[in-house]
Amino acid sequence: MSESVLTHYVCKIEGHGALKLNYKSGKAKLDINEGERLFEQLVLGRPFEDAPFITARICGICPVAHILSSIAALEDAFDVHVPNNIASLRKALYAGQIIQSHALHLFFLALPDYMNVANAVQLHHENPEIYKTAVSLKKLGDKLVEVIGGRAVHPVTPIVGGFTSVPTDKEIREMIASLETHMHMALAAVELFSGFKYPSMKRETEYLMMKEGRIISNRGLDTPLENYVYAFKESLREGTQTKFGTRDGHGFMIGALARLTLDHESLNPKATYALEKIWNKTLPTYNSFHNNVAQSIEIVNLIEVAISSLNDYLDDKNRVARVPFAVKAASGVGAVEAPRGTLYHAVKTDDKGNIVLYDIVTPTVQNLVNLEEDADFLMTEHADLAPEKLYKEVEMLIRAYDPCITCAVH
Amino acid sequence: MKPRIAIFDLTDCEGCELEFINLREKLTETLGQVDVANWRLGSTNTDSGPYDVTFIEGTPITEDDIATVKQARAVSRLVVSLGSCADLGGVQSWLGVSARKEGLKLVYGEKYKSSGMAPKPISYYIDVDIHLPGCPINPNELADLLGALLAGRMPTEARFPVCLECKARENECLLLAGQACLGPVTKGGCEAACPSKGLRCWGCFGALRGGNLKAMQKLLNEKFGKERTNQLLAIFYSQQDEYKELNLKTKGEK
User: What are the residues whose beta carbons fall under 8 Å from the beta carbon of A133, sequence distance 6 or more?
Assistant: First the structure.
């Protein structure tokens, strides 16, 4: 170890990776160093209801995604079909998750790169207006998760079949009002992130996402999510604790930019406006730095999704907090589009509902190879930059992906 | 001169240090009064010390984790164990040594070589001055702690069970309702976050010092059987003396 362990990891990303650039060969390497927590083993032998609670602890930034993915897998196994009002509430909770995660990433982790500040406290001094937007949008996401999930980090209410408790109508109405008053800030965020000068790059790649139970891509992939193990390959490399996802030996990209590229036609009106009038770029751009802009557009879209889902919930005359179901020996697969891309949970239970097998594939595992390919591309294309500048640019690229090494090694 | 603080994360979910950012308006109020000398997740500043107060989050598993804990201790006046991973070992610590080996095989295959150590609380390696447990921590407790330290006094630790805060919020008792709620023997400070929303207490603040864990174990044994009782108690308590006194075996230990 040449440097102090207190200072040698890439800052402002979730988890521990040390960046090593070989200027001679033009290769970049993100050395991952995270302890194995073995979540897939931790839940074995435990009753099914422990899985969402325990697997949430994989990630403090996207616990809702893990909880809902785990619940989706278990509901698939036990053939649980939740009524509309529960689905609406989950949709809104989920929107809150992505808003809080994207706001955290955009303003607290990525933005300092483009505004030339060290951290949010410095941003507060130098640009209080933007800091206010940052804090307000983060708070909006937190509040939405808190109102429905009971807590901003590691929510407590979502369970298989529904919720342990649901918010009052008054709380929901206040939440809707708050979402509406934050829309202008979300649009301002799109303006801000559209206006930054991103490093130029264009490298064609395959974008994947999950839509209505199917995994799709811009290169013709279209398969049910149960087939996720065949859609891409997860492999190990010596000396790392994470796996790496590839398709036909190459990287692929998931997350906000992939979703925007593949599915911008499903955007709500204000988000469409943000994409077409504010950002005004033709998709695909094949510039991974644009993941930042895509995240800001998703915030606008998810505010719209949350408002309509909560209104649907209020309009529903036959509301229940949860539905009964019977456990059985079965297997199930669940997935959600997490902030960073498709997150898969798969489960096998015995006839008492105890877990006998569990599998988790996180978004960052799927993004890592594409990230490396992009980094190598930058090293070659921008080889004329001073080493220090190139290093900073690769670091910015890593942050644009918003990787979660914590999730990658679970 | 402003007090210098550092925040380090080891192997974990990073949800507790996120609570610093979740302080939002209070973040600038409190962090504005200190010098954030080293915080990898939140800042570009990476000053290698010395620090007045160091928050350590996460469970030491990798060699670098353990080196971080030791190096940070050496240059810090006060060390705070931030969250249950640092303070108690976290959910990952309930696997015994042989179950961990099985898990490594299951997840990574036969050939995989791990250099990771069995997950322990940071107090296994270094002295800890202030304990701030929780999975996640309660942001209000964090704000209180920062306030106390800025005022030059040590923060007070909760010496009461979750039930005290739960009763104060007039919740229906989940234990009496037949659920395996660990509120009576779990350290308070969470403001009964889970039972107030209908979820039983999982014990994430750790076993209350002086709590009657034996009686709780007996009660749970009768209702849920020995295997489940051990699962319930082990998930957060497994590295604590109170738990070890029960002479239970953690998963996979002979």
Answer: A107, A185, A188, A189, A192
3-state secondary structure of B129: coil
Nearest to B197 among A118, A138, A156 (CB): A156
Q: How many CB pairs under 8 A join A and B?
A: 200
pLDDT tens-digit map of B86-131: 999 999 999 888 889 999 999 999 889 888 899 999 999 999 999 9
In this predicted structure, the answer to whether residue B252 has a pLDDT above a threshold of 60 is no
pLDDT at residue B253 greater than cutoff 80: no
Predicted local distance difference test score (pLDDT) of residue A121: 77
Q: Do A38 and B19 touch (CB under 8 A)?
A: no
Place of tokens 């206006």: A195
| Mutation site, A33, A39, A41, interface B, largest B CB count within 10 A | A41
Q: What is the dihedral of CA B146, A97, A370, A24, to 10 degrees?
A: -20
Q: Which residues of A touch B14 (CB under 8 A)?
A: 14-15, 59-61, 406
Please list, in sequence order, all residues whose beta carbon lies within 8 angstroms of the beta carbon of residue A87, skipping any fewer than 6 positions away: none
| Whole-Å CA distances, B199 to A55, A159, B139, B140 | 16, 9, 19, 20
Residue B254 has pLDDT above 60, yes or no: no
Residues A60, B72: C-beta atoms closer than 8 Å: no
In the block, residue with structure tokens 């939740």: A82
B199 neighbourhood in chain A, CB within 8 Å: 150, 156-157, 159, 164
Task: Find the residue in B nearest to A155 (Cα).
Answer: B194
pLDDT value of residue B146: 92
Q: B21–A406: do the CB atoms touch at under 8 Å?
A: no
Contacts of B16 in chain A (CB under 8 A): 60, 153
Residue spans of beta strands (DSSP E) within B83-227: 130-132
Q: Name the residue in chain B with its Cα closest to that of A60.
A: B15
Please list every residue in chain B whose beta carbon sits closer than 8 Å to the beta carbon of residue A15: 14
Matching residue, tokens 């979740």: B22
Residue-level pLDDT at B115:
84
Nearest to B18 by CA among A163, A34, A120: A120
In sequence order, the β-bridge partners of residue B76 are: B51
Q: What is the ipTM of this complex?
A: 0.95
What domains appear along chain A, each with residue ranges and CATH number?
A: 17-408 (1.10.645.10)
Q: What b/e readout covers B85-118, taking b as 16+ CB neighbours within 10 angstroms?
A: bbbbbbbbbbbbeebbebbbeebbeeeeebebbb
Q: pLDDT digit string (tens) for A235-283?
A: 998 888 999 999 999 999 999 999 999 999 999 999 999 999 999 999 9
pLDDT tens digits for range A59-101: 999 999 999 999 999 999 999 999 999 999 999 999 999 999 9
What's the confidence (pLDDT) of residue A174? 98
Cα–Cα distance, B4 to A400 (Å, whole number)? 30
* Test the B interface: residue of A10, A33, A38 with most B CBs within 10 Å: A38
Domains annotated on chain B, with CATH: 4-150 (3.40.50.700), 162-244 (no CATH)
Distance of CA B99 to the CA centre of its chain: 22
By Cβ distance, the residue of B43, B136, B139 closest to A154 is B136
CB-based contact B71 A4, cutoff 8 Å: yes
Average pLDDT over residues A117-126: 84
Q: Which of A119-123, A150-154, A302-306, A363-367 has the lowest mean pLDDT?
A: A119-123
Asked if the Cβ–Cβ distance from A241 to B116 is below 8 Å, we say yes
